[in-house]
Amino acid sequence: MQPNCGHLHSIAGSGAPCPPSGDSSCQPSAGAVHIQLGEARESTSSRQGSQSRSHSHGEAGGLEDPAPDSEEHGGSSLSELRHLLQWLHKSLPYLLILCVKLLMQHLSGISLGIGLLTTYAYANKSIVNQVFLRERCSKLQCTWLLLYLTGSSLLLYYTFHSQSLYYSLIFLNPTVDFMNFWEVLWIVGVTDFILKFLFMGFKCFILLVPSFVMPFKSKGYWYMLLEELCQYYRMFVPIPVWFRFLVARGELDSVLGWTLGILLGLLYLILKLLSFFGQLRNFRQVLRIFFTRPHYGVPASKRQCSESDDICSICQAEFQKPILLICQHTFCEECISLWFNREKTCPLCRTVISDHINKWKDGATSMHLQIF
């Protein structure tokens, strides 16, 4: 009896079990069994592959979790910055109104501060230029600077004569009944600029001294000494004003107010004393340089000048009082003195010649504003 092949193929294709029967036509052949086993293996492998893919996708998703957190953090920072900019944009008109009000309240002080600053800048630049010109400096320009600085200082003190601001120059308190913070800044700032003008006037006076009375090299040492004296004097002048302001009772009219004021005043004096000892070493060095007048070399002979073709490498002219350095290079005395105002080494070979820099020998005045 021939088996029913169509029935077997239909079973193999559908995968449905044969009904229990004794008919041989319902028994599957070996090929059908093989087909069913192969399909089972393929379905199992496909399920495992899908599970592994889902597992690997889950791991990858777990590794990528910090990225959204960082993006959220960056987004929150940008949001805060955006809110801040929006607040500034909305508050800008009100801030401008407050600034205009402050300018109106302190218009005279701001105008005077700008005037003092421009006067200082103009006079300082002019003095440095005149010092650089050496013997060719304009006596008329120096006289004008001296009169200009003197007139500016006298006009300022005459305008505010009721406050007796000149008392601060001799370590006394101006005639102000009650000094608040802004008045202290006003008194200290004006006094600092006046002291700068005073010592700049001394420098102008030195410029007017003829060269046969005071050589150019000696003038440089005087400029340096005057500037150091100016800085030290300016450091001590604000002490009485600030001490009075710190010790004042103010709103705390009690034992606590007195105690706190005295403690603040003592702390201020201690800090000023430490600052003084910190600058004392530099001042002693300046005094040593001023009195010893160190030499950078020895006068050069004619043979040594001829080796340099009788031409100074700095001014590109014939030698004037040639000086031979320890590195065997020859320069004009005034040229090399100007060079060592800002440098320590030879202009040609960079050999260290001086162990210090002679600051302020060019006639410049420090821009530092001594507030405290």
UniProtKB/TrEMBL annotation:
<keyword id="KW-0812">Transmembrane</keyword>
<keyword id="KW-0863">Zinc-finger</keyword>
<keyword id="KW-0808">Transferase</keyword>
<keyword id="KW-0472">Membrane</keyword>
<dbReference type="Pfam" id="PF13639">
    <property type="entry name" value="zf-RING_2"/>
</dbReference>
<protein>
    <recommendedName>
        <fullName>E3 ubiquitin-protein ligase RNFT1</fullName>
        <ecNumber>2.3.2.27</ecNumber>
    </recommendedName>
</protein>
<feature type="transmembrane region" description="Helical">
    <location>
        <begin position="184"/>
        <end position="209"/>
    </location>
</feature>
<keyword id="KW-1133">Transmembrane helix</keyword>
<keyword id="KW-0479">Metal-binding</keyword>
<feature type="transmembrane region" description="Helical">
    <location>
        <begin position="142"/>
        <end position="160"/>
    </location>
</feature>
<dbReference type="InterPro" id="IPR001841">
    <property type="entry name" value="Znf_RING"/>
</dbReference>
<comment type="function">
    <text>E3 ubiquitin-protein ligase that acts in the endoplasmic reticulum (ER)-associated degradation (ERAD) pathway, which targets misfolded proteins that accumulate in the endoplasmic reticulum (ER) for ubiquitination and subsequent proteasome-mediated degradation. Protects cells from ER stress-induced apoptosis.</text>
</comment>
<dbReference type="GO" id="GO:0061630">
    <property type="term" value="F:ubiquitin protein ligase activity"/>
</dbReference>
<dbReference type="GO" id="GO:1904294">
    <property type="term" value="P:positive regulation of ERAD pathway"/>
</dbReference>
<feature type="transmembrane region" description="Helical">
    <location>
        <begin position="94"/>
        <end position="122"/>
    </location>
</feature>
<dbReference type="InterPro" id="IPR013083">
    <property type="entry name" value="Znf_RING/FYVE/PHD"/>
</dbReference>
<dbReference type="GO" id="GO:0008270">
    <property type="term" value="F:zinc ion binding"/>
</dbReference>
<keyword id="KW-0862">Zinc</keyword>
<dbReference type="GO" id="GO:0016874">
    <property type="term" value="F:ligase activity"/>
</dbReference>
<dbReference type="GO" id="GO:0005783">
    <property type="term" value="C:endoplasmic reticulum"/>
</dbReference>
<comment type="pathway">
    <text>Protein modification; protein ubiquitination.</text>
</comment>
<dbReference type="InterPro" id="IPR044235">
    <property type="entry name" value="RNFT1/2"/>
</dbReference>
<feature type="domain" description="RING-type">
    <location>
        <begin position="312"/>
        <end position="350"/>
    </location>
</feature>
<feature type="region of interest" description="Disordered">
    <location>
        <begin position="1"/>
        <end position="75"/>
    </location>
</feature>
<dbReference type="InterPro" id="IPR017907">
    <property type="entry name" value="Znf_RING_CS"/>
</dbReference>
<feature type="transmembrane region" description="Helical">
    <location>
        <begin position="255"/>
        <end position="278"/>
    </location>
</feature>
<keyword id="KW-0833">Ubl conjugation pathway</keyword>
<keyword id="KW-0436">Ligase</keyword>
